[in-house]
Amino acid sequence: MTIALLQYPIIWADIQANLKLLEQRLAAIAGHADVAVLPEMFSTGFCIDRPDLAEALDGMTVRTLQRLARQYDIAIVGSFIASKSIDGVDKYYNMGFFITPTDSSFEPKRHLFARAGEQRYFSPGQNRLIVQYKQVKFCLQICYDLRFPVWSRNTSGFDYDVLIYVAAWPEERIAWWDNLLVARSIENQAIVCGVNSVGTDGNNIHYTGHSTIIDTRLNHLVSYADNEAGTRLATLDLEALHHFRERCPMYREADPFTYEKENKV
After folding, report:
1. What is the rounded CA–CA span in Å between residue 219 and residue 229?
2. Which of 92, 90, 100, 91 is nearest to 140 (CA)?
3. How many angstroms separate the Cα of 162 from the Cα of each of 18, 53, 106, 159, 171?
4. At residue 87, does pLDDT exceed 80?
5. pLDDT tens figures, 217-243
6. Which of these, 49, 67, 48, lies nearest to 59 by C-alpha position?
7. I need a surface site. Which of 31, 149, 171, 191 has the fewest CB within 10 A?
8. CA-CA-CA-CA torsion sign (69, 75, 92, 20)
9. What number does CATH give the domain 2-251?
10. pLDDT at 261
11. Do the Cβ atoms of 6 and 25 come closer than 8 Å?
């Protein structure tokens, strides 16, 4: 299983331009990767107060992603601004997606970043997004979700193999990003993939990137210099992951718990 991390500046609030650039980047790695991971809100940047940028799950962005997944035989992972009408009321979401050549899965971001006012515009997700693709189980979470370890808990030890975080994580808190990704790998005995934004957005917030893939030995299989843009690939050793879990099944001693869903959609 080879994963490509696409760390590039996002063109602010320009869906068509970002989709065009994505196609060029996927074409460059065609045949070399099984999964391509994009930053949070890859098609707009972190435009939380722009409902005019929201699209339905069968809109242009999703249709384009589905076409590219088929064309380049690759799964594409990230998030975008989505809208859905519920009982005649439009709801907006920071919508995570895992789109393969044959299927599409969606779940909204669970933990909305109140400090930026994200909860004023978006509704939270209620379920984790876990997808099996090419015999590998992936769990997708979004940015601020990284700070909440219960939401990522690998309860059975085999809920997922690869934990993906797509993010718009600012430079001023990048040390938290670096260390929390390592923590999530340790406590869940999983490979962790984090893809962050890079560059300065339309709100003058700067992102330094630091996208990475961390294996269960805490090796960084992919790393970027500060502010570096580019695509990097890593091949995962799933056999080593499963051997480690079988040899050290720490999930058996974990504390039991249950998730409580909010009465929101």
Report:
1. 21
2. 100
3. 26, 30, 17, 10, 25
4. no
5. 999 999 999 999 999 999 999 999 999
6. 67
7. 31
8. negative
9. 3.60.110.10
10. 65
11. yes
d(CA 26, CA 70) in angstroms, rounded, equals 11
pLDDT in tens, 124-153: 999 999 999 999 999 999 999 999 999 999
- What lies within 8 Å, CB to CB, of 254 at 6+ separation is 153, 155
Q: What is the 3-state secondary structure (H, E, C) of 98-156?
A: EECCCCEEEEECCCCCHHHCHHHCCCCCCCCEEEEECCEEEEEEEHHHHHCHHHHCCCC
Inter-CA distances, 113 with 35, 85, 94, 144, 203, Å: 27, 23, 11, 6, 16
For 157, residues 6+ apart whose C-beta sits below 8 A from its C-beta are 189, 245, 249, 250, 251, 252
Q: pLDDT tens for residues 155-195?
A: 999 999 999 999 999 999 999 999 999 999 999 999 999 99
Predicted confidence at residue 121, as pLDDT, reads 94
- The residues that are catalytic are 40, 109, 143
The predicted pLDDT at position 83 comes to: 96
